[in-house]
# Entry
Amino acid sequence: MRVLVVGGGGREHALCWAIARSSLCDELICAPGNAGIADVAECIDVGAEDVDAIVALSKEREVDFVVIGPEGPLVAGLVDRLSDIGIKAFGPSASAALLEGSKGFMKDLSHRCGVPSAAYGRFTDPARAKSFIAKQGAPIVVKADGLAAGKGVILCYTEAEAIAAINSIMIDKAFGPAGGEIVIEEFLYGEEASFFALVDGKTAVPLVSAQDHKAAFDGDKGPNTGGMGAYSPAPAVTDAMAGAIMENIVKPVIAGMATDGRVFKGVLFAGLMIGPKGPKLLEFNVRFGDPECQALVMRLKSDLLEALVACADGTLDTIDLQWHDDAAMTVVMAANGYPGAYDKRSEIRSLDTAEAVDGVTVFHAGTRREGEHIFSDGGRVLGVTARGATIAEAQSRAYAGIDRIDWPGGFCRRDIGWRALGR
# Structure
């Protein structure tokens, strides 16, 4: 097969890394890719959000299968456009991608399907939203309804913080049109986890569990980011818990989507809060998590491309995914200043010495190559990923890799995996 991967981040490097190993893959293209992806795929400078250009590229290169990494082109209908010209793709249609494209839609559907989740309200008027805050009190969660690059969720510990969040999203337009509507939710307590299932419209196959770290700094302090690290497995997701998540959250939503004429194919990513009463849904995403994807592919024994094609073909019931027993951990190195203003052009050295550490693979997220030199080109720049017999060993190897990288322009959290290690 000639395969095109759409995107240029750490998730897409992990997908390319795994797909390049597939016996089904004869040629691998990535648009736009990055400096690391260029080692395993041909990178073409076409933006992931440019749906017209991606469709044209797919036709020109006679691509057999397209794997879409980020949520933007999914919500914009790239799968539909490719289907119209007879090209198969991994990911949901635009109507099904609304599960991530609108938090309000997701909350309404989940409520109708009986999925355990936080109590909520939807608002297009800032004054009404502020009145709701006054009645509910704090802590409380304020979310931009639309796509906000993983940064549209604000945890508010006081009413003043909640009012400021409403002003920022709805009046100051911090997230642009994504903040035309907001969702305000009950604050849930417990332990967060990420749960993924491959879906072919009728069959759902769970993947192994993972846990992300959203806050920028050690101790879960600082602003939310797109993710500063992840590990797999997540001890909070036992086999019994995984069964409950499938029965009470994943399957009802897949059935509800089908009933609404929005048949879901692709990967369904449930962000969960696991408390004393079991798992509750925080949000749905319709693509692999970043950086969870990096940890997951390190543990996958099976042919990833075969499984992704089965999602598109409706044959997931023939797939038996196999996993390494080892744990895996990804530690994100970000540019100084992220998630605020940051320098986009600082040189990164000694990446080869990091990968010389046993079990370590460095996935590139925001990088570019100039001659023989690698430079940062984004906020989250590297995902140093390691496998080990235990989470502690994976953590030790990941940080050993990081300590070999010469990049004064970057930083990382030094406590990824702290929940698992503290058990």
Remarks:
- The longest strand covers residues 265-275.
- The longest helix spans residues 239-259.
